[in-house]
From TrEMBL, chain A:
Functional note: May play a role in vesicular transport from endoplasmic reticulum to Golgi.
InterPro entries: Bet3 (IPR016721), NO_sig/Golgi_transp_ligand-bd (IPR024096), TRAPP_component (IPR007194)
Originating organism: Aotus nancymaae
Subcellular location, principal: endoplasmic reticulum
Entries under SUPFAM superfamilies matching the protein: Ligand-binding domain in the NO signalling and Golgi transport
Keywords: Endoplasmic reticulum, ER-Golgi transport, Golgi apparatus, Lipoprotein, Palmitate, Transport
Name of the featured protein: Trafficking protein particle complex subunit
Annotated GO CC locations: endoplasmic reticulum; Golgi apparatus; TRAPP complex
TrEMBL record, chain B:
Coiled coil: none
A GO CC annotation given for this chain: perinuclear region of cytoplasm
Places the protein is found: Cytoplasm, Perinuclear region
Protein name: Trafficking protein particle complex subunit 2-like protein
UniProt keywords, alphabetically: ER-Golgi transport, Transport
Assigned protein family: Belongs to the TRAPP small subunits family. Sedlin subfamily.
InterPro entries: Longin-like_dom_sf (IPR011012), Sedlin (IPR006722), TRAPPC2L (IPR044760)
One GO BP annotation of this record: endoplasmic reticulum to Golgi vesicle-mediated transport
Length: 181, 97
């Protein structure tokens, strides 16, 4: 099967249910392996980090986004391009502080939790979709941006919305401005 | 009783069958191709319920049951404690009673 070298292979559709069930099986198994919610959350984040560092290459190759000039632009691209591309949803973006380095993604729908009605008893601090936080964190790190990514609100825990918070940690070096001195 | 189920399963359709017409109530059974059985007991005084309505009720039950099975935290064989399942059953019962 030959194709032009510069083209990424086209997406082949698979059944979303298989993906959602696989994710559920992953979380359920982690819950059996680790008693504490914090441990499960931590391992989900670690796994997500491993995915994100790799996925970002695929994302940049497929989306051909240009260079971003602000954290707000980056967050918009995560919400409108990346989430759309990989999960089929478009969370809305809000900025949480005046120094414009803290943002929130509000997820209206979340395909990963389609069959989970509520967290099981004794698992009230489980961040079921923590894999997503790790993915975002890993992807940003591969493009030299350090960020803290956590769930601020979660419908599964009884909150009214599901909200992922992204806090960009270091100011990006803007070498081209230093030359002016 | 076992032979009644057996003949249901042997038919390739997931058919419904009236299991015991008794004096006070009618019992309907529905078996899936995964051998999961649903049983519905209907009061004899309810003559309005037709076969195709019963069949669609069983189908709704089957669909909701499938959603319950897809919950990664649900172990097959456990008692069903899903709110969505209970809501579906309640709304079905309200419709026919």
């Amino acid at each position: 099967m030959s194709r032009p070298a510069h083209q990424r292979p086209a997406y082949h559709k698979i059944n979303k249910d298989l993906f959602v069930l696989t994710y559920g099986a992953l979380v359920a198994q982690l819950c059996k392996d680790y008693e504490k919610d914090e441990d499960v959350n931590q391992y989900l984040d670690k796994m997500g980090y491993g995915i994100g560092t790799r996925l970002v290459e695929d994302f940049l190759a497929r989306s051909c986004v240009g260079r971003c000039h602000s954290y707000s632009e980056i967050t918009d691209i995560i919400a409108q391009v990346a989430f759309k591309m990989y999960l089929g949803i478009t969370p809305s973006v809000t900025c949480n502080n005046s120094s414009r380095n803290e943002f929130s993604l509000i997820l209206d729908k979340n395909p990963l939790v389609e069959f989970v009605e509520e967290l099981p008893a004794g698992r009230s601090s489980l961040c079921y979709c923590n894999l997503l936080c790790g993915i975002i964190r890993g992807a940003l790190e591969m493009v030299h941006l350090a960020a803290d990514v956590t769930f601020l609100q979660d419908r599964l825990k009884g909150d009214s919305v599901t909200e992922i918070g992204i806090t960009f940690l270091k100011k990006r070096e803007e070498k081209k401005y230093r030359r002016k001195k | 009783e076992i032979s009644a189920w057996g003949s249901l399963v042997a038919r390739r359709e997931r058919n419904l069958r009236q299991l015991y017409p008794t004096g006070t109530s009618k019992v309907y059974g529905y078996v899936t191709n995964s051998k999961v059985k649903f049983v519905m007991v209907v009061d004899s005084s309810n003559t309005a319920l037709r076969d195709n309505e019963i069949r669609s009720m069983f189908r709704k039950l089957h669909n909701s049951y499938t959603d319950v099975m897809c919950n990664p935290f649900y172990t097959p064989g456990d008692r069903i404690q899903s709110r969505a399942f209970d809501n579906m059953v309640t709304s079905m019962m309200i419709q026919v009673c």
